[in-house]
Specification:
Length: 254
């Protein structure tokens, strides 16, 4: 079953076409890589899926329902969350507070429930704290829970951002260059972590990444963009041997 479908998506900024007639499908439960040179349109695709940018042409379907040009909060409510190239955290809050704040998207108690601390409020707050504790433990952040987020090492800030995205209990997780700035050991650990995230949370994952070892080591399918257009699509083995991909991207990477 396809969880996400992009049909002839185009995005124009004035006279510039950043993404042109791109179409692809993401299978439920898969890990898909989105690669290409800088400026190929990868992050623009994420911004179109999540409603940050408006689609110029085409449509986007999530679980068979049209989410084209929906507001970002509605896309998140539908079950899609993401991370960003530039880490976005509540930098002055603790690690624990960052995750707990994100968990609150799942509550349905009212302001009155909270003000009067009624049973519904107390029960849900207890569950949210348990969820935050579980995420911190799973992401290897529990021993840093009281540390201010801005004081975390860079690689752990990346983990914290992923933890916050998971707190919303998504069905589709979009990771925008999660290994950026990481050393080889951190990148390998992240590769294994993403696989564990898929299994534990029963997620579908799409990754933008320039670290080819990570992409080739974990992805079921890879989409290659170049100048805003789809250049190739296939399994890691197919992509590694694709002449146009080697010429446009992989060759340059080497």
């Amino acid at each position: 079953m396809d969880i996400l479908e992009l049909n002839n998506i185009t995005k124009r900024f004035g006279g510039l076409t950043a993404v042109g007639n791109v179409d692809f499908k993401i299978k439920e439960g898969s890990i898909t890589g989105l690669i290409g040179p800088n400026g190929a349109g990868k992050t623009t695709i994420f911004n179109l899926i999540t409603g940050v940018y408006k689609v110029s042409e085409g449509d986007i379907l999530f679980k068979g329902k049209d989410i084209t040009n929906k507001e970002p909060y509605l896309v998140a409510q539908a079950g899609i969350t993401r991370t960003f190239q530039n880490i976005r955290l509540f930098k002055k809050l603790s690690v624990y507070e960052n995750v707990l704040t994100a968990c609150h998207r799942n509550v349905d108690y009212t302001i009155i429930d909270a003000l009067l601390m009624l049973p519904k409020y107390r029960k849900q707050e207890k569950l949210l704290k348990e969820q935050a504790d579980e995420l911190l433990e799973f992401m290897g952040l529990n021993d840093r829970r009281e540390l201010v987020a801005n004081n975390l090492p860079y690689g752990l800030q990346r983990r914290l951002e992923i933890a916050r995205a998971l707190a919303s209990k998504p069905e589709l997780l979009l990771l925008d260059e999660p290994a950026a700035g990481m050393n080889p050991d951190e990148t390998e650990q992240l590769m294994h972590l993403i696989g564990e995230i898929r299994r534990k949370f029963n997620l579908t994952v799409v990754i933008i990444e320039h670290h080819m070892d990570l992409i080739m080591g974990i992805c079921d399918n890879i989409l290659v963009l170049n100048f805003g257009c789809k250049l190739a699509e296939g399994t890691p083995d197919q992509i590694q041997d694709h002449p146009k991909v080697i010429e446009a991207y992989l060759g340059a990477e080497g």
